Each structure stands twice: as C-alpha cells, then as structure tokens.
Amino acid sequence: MASDRAKRLRRLARTLTDRFGLASHRHGVVEAEWSGSARAWTFAWTDGPTVAQVRAACRETEPVASEGLRYARSLSQDAVALGAVRLTILSATTATGGRPRVRTADVEALWRDRPFPGPRTERERALVYAVVYEVHAAHHRNSADAAEICELINQYGLAVFLRRCGAELSPAETLTAHYAASHAHPTWRHQLAPMDPDALLRAVRDDPRASAALLDAALALLPGLPAESAAAEDELRTRRGRASPTA
User: Fold this and answer.
1) What is the distance between the alpha carbons of residues 216 and 210, in angstroms, rounded to a whole number?
2) Mean per-residue pLDDT for 129-147?
3) Which of 18, 44, 192, 240 to pair with 36, CA 20 to 30 A apart?
4) What is the mean predicted confidence (pLDDT) over 168-183?
C-alpha cells in the first residue's frame, strides 16, 4: 500500500511538473521527497506556482494519495533579490518613520501568493544581477542566501547597484544622483526615490559648475513645470550653449 502511494505521488509530481511548465523552468521539477523521521511526503519546488496552486492541483488530481502531503516552495536567490529590490523601492512611498529594513520574512510574504516571480523590466533584471553578483563576490561562492541579500541592500541601498548595472536614468534620476547627497536626500541612495522636480531645477540653477549633461536633464524637466518662467529656460539654454560638449 505504501509502495503504491509512493508511485502515485511520484507520478503526480511529474504531472504537476508538466502542468505548470516546470520541466523547462530554470529551477527544475516538482520533487516528491519522503522523510523517514517525519513519516511524511513533501512536494518541493523552487519559485514556480504558489503552494495554494499546487495543493489545489493535487487535491483535484489525486485526492486520496495527496492526503497529508506537505508542500515546500523555496525561493531562488534571484527571486529573493527581486523581492528585496521591489520592497525597498516601495518603502520610499509607504514609510512613515525612519528608513525601513527589508527582511527575509517580508520577501517570503511578498511572493506567497504570487506565482513565478520574475523581473518586469530590464532595470529590475539588471538590479537583481548586480545584487546577486555582489553577494557572490563578497563571499567567494556562487550562491547567496536570503539573509545575505537583504542585509546587502539594507546596508548599501540600491543606488550603488543602479550605477554598477549601467541602467539608463531619467532626467530626474540623473539630477538626483548628482545632487541627492548635497541636498540631504538619502532616500535616493537607499530607495531610488528622486528629488522633487522643483528642487532639482533650483539645484541646477544654483550650481555654477553644472555640466552639459545636468543642464540637458534640467531642460528636459521644464515641460512638467508649467509654473517656471521662460527666463529659467533661457538661462539654462544660454548656459548649455557655453558648456563643453564633453562636460
């Protein structure tokens, strides 16, 4: 009887692997694992579908054999890094006190009901790569656990990784990256939150050494600032004409 259940569960694991497309997924298949000490079967997989999705599929396909089955969905280092990046950026708009710290439990909660976590943009993909690469380099191994990833982001913030991955910046981000430190705006360093456009424009106008790139970024902000006078644009264009093309 026990042997028959083992066969049915292993067959069910293969069925779920096909149903959820995990055979071609980089993290592999659903594994049927027996624990002698716990005297229980566990279905284990990485990223992919949620526990609720797999549990429902098991009950639908093999309600008897899956009775008492345990489920263990782990997160890959890329999924952890992506969750930590998103939560850190989100905290810039939701924080009410000091700078929040992202925790492993926060990342697990973010993905609990979200299947197949993956980057939505090339920027997210690049940030994830930069964060994971840094953990690998720091610990001299090709793996990164969740605590290490969260601690790295908590300690250094995201701006340093955005610079390293060479992601394209918007005009507001270009200006914020340059002026955030001198204008006491730490949320850029940690959470990639740009400064207010009005503050950025004032920073450029007050900076006699603003480069051509900074002047171009300031000019790109003007259409979104209708209250600004034509004199501001004239001033910036005059300065841009005098700036070195390579500045």
Assistant:
1) 10
2) 96
3) 18
4) 96
Specify the pLDDT at position 208.
Answer: 94
Angle between helices 146-156 and 104-111 in degrees, nearest 10: 110
- Among 152, 165, 158, 212, smallest CA distance to 180 is for 158
Distance CA 167, CA 220 (A): 18
- 180: how many CB neighbours lie within 10 A of its CB? 21
d(CA 41, CA 63): 14
Neighbours of 236 (CB within 10 A): 22
DSSP string, the chain: -HHHHHHHHHHHHHHHHHHTTGGGSTT---EEEEETTTTEEEEEEESSS-HHHHHHHHHHH-TTTTTT-EEEEE--HHHHHHHHHHHHHHHHHH--SS-----HHHHHHHHTT-SS---SSHHHHHHHHHHHHHHHHHHTSS---HHHHHHHHHHH-SHHHHHHHTPPPPHHHHHHHHHTTTTT-HHHHHH-PPPPHHHHHHHHHT-TT--HHHHHHHHHHGGG-TTS-HHHHHHHHHHHHHS-TT-
**How far apart, in Å, are the Cα atoms of 194 and each of 63, 81, 85, 197, 207?**
52, 22, 16, 8, 18
Query: Quick check: 35 pLDDT over 50?
Result: yes
pLDDT of residue 224 exceeding 90, the answer is no
The whole-number pLDDT of residue 247 equals: 43
